[in-house]
Amino acid sequence: MRLLPRDEKFFDLFTSVASLSVDAAKLQLDLLKADGLHRPAIVDAIKRLEHEADQLTHEVVTRLDRVFITPLDREDIHLLASRLDDVMDLIDGTAHRVQMYRAGEAPAGAILLAEVVLRATESLLVAVRGLEKNKSGVVLDACAQVKRLEEEGDSVYHEWVARLFDGSPDALVVIKWKEIYDTLEKTLDHMEDAGNVLESISIKHG
Question: pTM score, two decimals?
Answer without folding.
Answer: 0.93
